[in-house]
Amino acid sequence: MNEEVFYRPEIFSSEERTLPAALYNLAKIMIGKSASGHVFVPVRSMQYLAVLDDEEFIFVDGAGNRTIAISWRHFRPRARNSLDDAVPYEAIYYSPEAVSIMGRLQGDFARALEILASRQAKPGEKAKVIVMRPKASA
């Protein structure tokens, strides 16, 4: 079994935020489909890696040393009145730079998760195997 290790620095600051319902619901569906209970989402536009589980979403700078830059946790889906309402959560920042990227991160993460979900196999869909044959020598 492969194990990924990420490092959590001291908390710089935190704030209460809300996650759009569609994004929260899609993340929960993806986590539920995962055999490991974790989903790795490359946020290529920002060179970040998001790692999702039932308790927390962490964001790691893809060019860095596996140190968590931002985490989203303490999701409170029961605080909403309908499945279409945003979900309150706590955003934790581990550096001043993390605070400045948060505005862009939520939108870019949403697009990356949608791309990942669209690439998942659909029920009943079969894999296609392409046979690669070597070129005949002359």
Please provide a written account of the structure.
- The chain contains two helices and six strands; from the N terminus they run βαβββββα.
- The radius of gyration is 18 Å and the shape is globular.
- Strand 3 and strand 4 (56-61) form a beta hairpin.
- 26% of the residues lie in helices and 26% in strands.
- It has one domain.
- The chain has a six-stranded antiparallel beta sheet.
- The chain has 138 residues and is an alpha+beta fold.
- The longest helix is centred in the C-terminal third of the chain and has 23 residues, at 96-118.
Characteristic terms for this protein:
alpha+beta; single chain; 2 helices; globular; 138 residues; six-stranded antiparallel β-sheet
Short recap of the structure:
By secondary structure, this protein is α+β, with helices and mostly antiparallel strands. It has one domain (13-118). The chain contains two helices and six strands.
Helix content: 25-40%
Oligomer classification: single chain
Instruction: Please give the radius of gyration in angstroms.
Output: 18 Å
Shape type: globular
- State the secondary-structure class: alpha+beta
Helix-strand string: EHEEEEEH
Strand segment count: 6
What's the helix and strand layout?
Blueprint: E1 13-19, H1 21-33, E2 39-43, E3 48-52, E4 56-61, E5 68-73, E6 87-93, H2 96-118
Antiparallel strand pairs: 1-6, 2-3, 3-4, 4-5, 5-6
